[in-house]
Amino acid sequence: MSRLTDTFRNIFKIHELRQRIFYTLAILFLVRLGAHITIPGVDTTLLTESMKNATTDNLFGLYDLFVGGAFSNAAIFALGIMPYISASIIIQLLGAVVPYIQKLQQEGEEGRKKITQWTRYGTVLIASMQAWGVTIRLLNIQVQGLPIVPEAVNGFPWVLSTIIILCSGTILMMWMGEQITERGIGNGISLIIFIGIIARFPHAIFDEIRLIGVGQRSIIEELVILILMFFIIAGVVLVTQGTRRIPVQYAKRVVGRKIYGGVTQYIPLRVNTAGVMPIIFAQSIMFIPNTVLSFFPDNEFLQGISGLFVYDSPVYSTIYALMIVFFTYFYTAIAFNPKDVADNMKKQGGFIPGIRPGKQTSEFIDNILTKITLPGSIFLAVIAILPAFISGFGVSGQFAQFFGGTSLLIIVGVALDSLQQIESHLLMRHYDGFMKSGKLKGRRSV
In the structure, what pLDDT confidence band is assigned to residue 416 with cuts at 50, 70 and 90? Predict the structure, then answer.
């Protein structure tokens, strides 16, 4: 405990690191502030009333989760950073099928700049379309026959100004994310999503306290739930950090009077290469049927079909899990290309012991990647459907979301990434990091 306390103290001894942390916290504060500033013209009293009976088991609920409640608040940051994420995913997927984009991805800094610019243009286009959809949704929401957007202001000027406000909010968040990445700690875009999800955690805790207060759950039962949550988080951290290392030997080369190579390095193949993307893809698709069928409330046949896609139904969970396994392999195939790795190794004079360079190396890496992806995909599927099972045991809906699914994976992934960046700053200044045991090697004031 004392070493951990010393590590936290050392963080604030480093002037640059201290500035980066405070800068990141300031930007994240502005993000949360914007999530509570309602769009001009919306009746906040009626909006609050309409949100009381809102459901979270559809696309709107999923979107609201990622933007930290800004969507349900009809805030200026209602679109969040999701249009930028969507544009990035589209560009990344196009890179696998469009040779020109694939070439740009391999051109280094210049290629990345062009792809970044295209992503920004795509963000504005997607944000504009989504903003238009949000205005239509707001105009259609009524509470006891009263529209949340009064008829006196819901004309074309209000629609146009709302679209501009929402697009500007997304562009501002995109800029703030880039500033965090450049001048703060961690990946800015990921941290913005992270802070939106974690903002719901206090409300989830209050729900659990309320259940204890009304006698629906004992303190012992709550402790058992918290212990279970601890082990689930530990398992997610273990799998997120899990890698299979493939040894690579580099032949010795003599250049002038210097000898290069002759060392053994490793290719780290992650158990969960795809990260959280398979769950996001599968969840988005699984929410489509209920979202579409909700527009036909009077059709009994369609409502019967929608009952099969309820969040905690066995049919939903089974299809959801199978889709996650499929998307894990699909996204891994896009994110990691064994042929490119084998070609780069061959150019640099590297080889895997016992495996011929070139095609055999590519097949060997692909075979190992396929094998380790299977347990990774099954683990993702289990984590994704876990909140539905947990909520079936009486855990409140909001708190159950933190037992798995997209929320837990994003929280763990972003926290580990930020922690590793802080670690690197500490080690550069000759301090011990969070993950390093033993006494401090040395200290110096910075």
Answer: confident
What gap in Å lies between CA 431 and CA 10, rounded to an integer? 7
DSSP E strands in 68-144: the ranges are 142-143
3-state secondary structure of 377: helix
Tell me if 16 sits within 8 A of 143, measured CB to CB: no
Tell me the pLDDT band of 318, cut-offs 50, 70 and 90: confident
Contact in structure between 14 and 446 (CB atoms under 8 Å):
yes
Half-sphere exposure at residue 2, Cβ-oriented, CA atoms within 13 angstroms? 3
Q: Which CATH class is domain 202-403?
A: mainly alpha
CATH of domain 1-199: 1.10.3370.10
Cα 433 to Cα 3, 8, 11, 12, 420: the distances in Å are: 10, 9, 9, 13, 9
**Distance from C-alpha of 361 to C-alpha of 354, rounded to nearest angstrom:** 10
202-403 matches 1-199 in CATH topology: yes
Domain boundaries, the chain: 1-199, 202-403
Three-point CA angle 337, 343, 349, nearest 5°: 140
DSSP for 293-344, please give it: HTT-TT-HHHHHHHGGG-TT-HHHHHHHHHHHHHHHHHHHHHH--HHHHHHH
SS3 277: helix
Strand order in the sheet with 264-270: 264-270, 243-250, 350-351
SS3 216: coil
Report phi then psi at 38, rounded to 5. -75, 145
Q: Residue 10's CB: how many other CB atoms inside 10 A?
A: 20
Q: Residue 408: CB partners within 8 Å, gap ≥ 6? A: 232, 233, 236, 383, 402
Give 233-283 pLDDT, tens digit per residue. Answer: 888 888 888 888 888 887 766 666 666 556 678 888 888 888 777 877 777
Contact indicator for 64, 78 with CB cutoff of 8 Å: no
Mean pLDDT for the stretch of residues 420-445: 60
pLDDT of 30 over the 50 cut: yes
438 pLDDT higher than 60: no
The number of beta carbons lying within 10 Å of the beta carbon of residue 87 is 21
Closest listed residue to residue 152, CA positions, set 38, 76, 41: 41
Residue with tokens 């201290």: 18
Q: How many C-alpha atoms does 250 have within 13 Å on its Cβ side?
A: 17
Distance CA 77, CA 67 (A): 8
